[in-house]
Specification:
By secondary structure, the protein is mainly alpha-helical. It has four helices and no strands.
Length: 146
């Protein structure tokens, strides 16, 4: 419940409690809060046992944790499995890393072959070849007409 409260926050709350209630009344306030929490737990447990007794003997093993949506889905839809609905297979099928590794390996092999001087006619050369001279581009409009 309070798993995200850090030690500095607890220290701040303690200092604030001492300042608000004072060192005289603070132990009494802590006892009162602990008593209220104890009463709430007892009330909750008695409500659970009363609900179980009203439901009948076929629901004696009913767990109230099953009412949480995450637990309900895991228990009834996924049959208690922790991985969900084949999502892991979908993730692995859509993961491009294997294909990218294969392409990178092919490029490395081609680069190694060109460095060692081995040329294969079926392979595409990775170096740029000199082509014809670029033609001067003509303007898109007539300068005299404007």
């Amino acid at each position: 419940m309070f798993s995200d409260v850090g030690p500095l926050e607890l220290l701040t709350l303690a200092v604030l409690a001492v300042l608000v209630f004072g060192p005289d009344k603070l132990p009494k306030m802590i006892q009162n809060v602990a008593g209220v929490l104890r009463k709430l737990r007892e009330l909750s447990e008695s409500a659970k046992t009363e609900i179980r007794s009203e439901l009948g003997p076929e629901y004696q093993d009913f767990d109230f944790e099953d009412l949480r949506p995450k637990t309900f889905v895991r228990k009834h839809l996924l049959n208690g499995e922790t991985e969900g609905l084949g999502l892991e297979e979908i993730r692995s099928a859509l993961d491009p890393r294997a294909e990218l590794d294969q392409i990178a390996g092919t490029v490395r092999e081609a680069a190694d072959d060109t460095r060692t001087g081995v040329r294969n006619a079926a392979r595409v050369p990775l170096t740029k070849t000199a082509g014809p001279e670029p033609v001067a581009e003509r303007s898109a409009f007539d300068i005299d007409a404007t």
